[in-house]
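Protocol step 4 of 6: structure prediction from sequence.
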Amino acid sequence: IMFFFRFINFFIIIFILCITITDNLYASKIIFFSTKFNEVNVRNGPGLNHLLLYKILVKGYPLKEMGEFNNWKKVQDFSGRVGWISKSQLSRHKYIITIVPNQYLYKFPTKNSKRIAIVKKESLLKIIKETEGWLLLESDGVKGWITKDAVWGLN
């Protein structure tokens, strides 16, 4: 009987480990999309028959994937709003939104570098390159580096 309980305990531990590992793998796989067009509808459900919640009126707006149904993605924006967008309206191009007010763009990925521009909170910028802790971004022909902790929209 003691052997039986050890056997059951072993399987319970293995089961819990499998669940934990699976949850951690899924949690680490955050996927971001961006809007493909200058006008994208966000609905309260997956389909054209669902209520229009709001419109995103800018190309490149980053959105975090929360779920999927047929040809629709459930997404969340940086402010926490959740809705559904047709996959045909989404792109894999990488953009971010700044979440910290008045950040600097630097010439090189170091804070000792020359400051190129000030970036206001909730600015939309395209990702050109990533390094450890830094992003090379572009907006309106201006390129510069910013720290990753000042932005939202990274995988």
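Step 5 (inspection) to follow. The first helix runs from residue 2 to 28.
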